[in-house]
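Structural prep section.
Before we set up the soaks we want a predicted structure of the protein with phosphoric acid mono(formamide)ester in place, mainly to decide which crystallisation condition to try first. Input record follows.
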Amino acid sequence: MKSFFHVQDIGNLSTALEEARQVKANPFAWKHLGENKTIMLVFFNSSLRTRLSSQKAAYNLGMNPIVLNIGQDSWKLETELGVVMDGDKSEHLREAIPVMASYCDIIGVRSFAGLQDRDFDYAETILQQFVQYSGKPVISLESATVHPCQAFADLITIDEYKKKARPKVVLSWAPHPRALPQAVPNSFAEWMNAADVDFVITHPEGYELDPLFAGNAKVEYDQMKAFEGADFIYAKNWSCPGVTNPADYGKILSKDMSWTVDEAHMAVTDNAFFMHCLPVRRNMIVSDAVIDAPTSLVIPEAANRVVSIQVVMKRMLEALNL
Ligand code: CP
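Run finished without errors. Recording the tokens verbatim:
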């Protein structure tokens, strides 16, 4: 595996899920693979789960993780080519990436969407520079448009808890005070479209996800109707993807609190499990009662972040050790 950005990069999903079961059952069985290997984990943005699960997975595989928080532990980095660097950024990615690559075997990058320039974000301009200038396998630890490690962990969790062969899974927009990127819903949609589930997306009008990720998924603008008979509710806020109106890209179009997932919403489901990638704003995205209920999967979902990234790192190490 050379890079991990999209669902296609993991190959057959049944095979990947079986490998995830094996890794979860016996996390230290592949400790020899990472001997004398280093992974560089580069964070342009904050993280709790991604940072800790990546480090834990690296240790499980016998690998040495180095974490770099850009702008805190390092110089501030310029990301755009052709600019006069007379501001507060002391170093360009063009030099920083090959230097970092010279110290490691695999690179993981967290770099959120700026939400100012849709073309810049949707071209994955920063992530692609890591691919181009590092020459190393690259993992998106949530980049401008995708969060594949989260989506793989979500699929593992759904596979573990499903009570039907083909469960109904609903991705629901929910309100948030700040404009958030579309990476999590994009990847969740991409992975659910590839999985054997009945997938429905619900959001207010104007929040349509990019067709690259939404694919042929059903979109239902009536949230309660979408929730009917659901087995899994996956709540998430995202800002306007700018599909129907590019001028609205990155904007908050709605803060409608009637979209907060509460007990009345869950009552029309088939006793659905509640999921969210975390961090979550309580009583904005989801009510206390729903997230604290026994049907809330937010903690096992976060725990599976170690499993998903460990499968990805394991495959990259196997390719490096060939
Ligand atoms: N879900 C997720 O990626 O969490 P962090 O932002 O804390 O890493």
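Observations: Residues 47-50, 142, 150, 277-279 surround phosphoric acid mono(formamide)ester (CB under 6 Å).
Flagged for discussion at group meeting.
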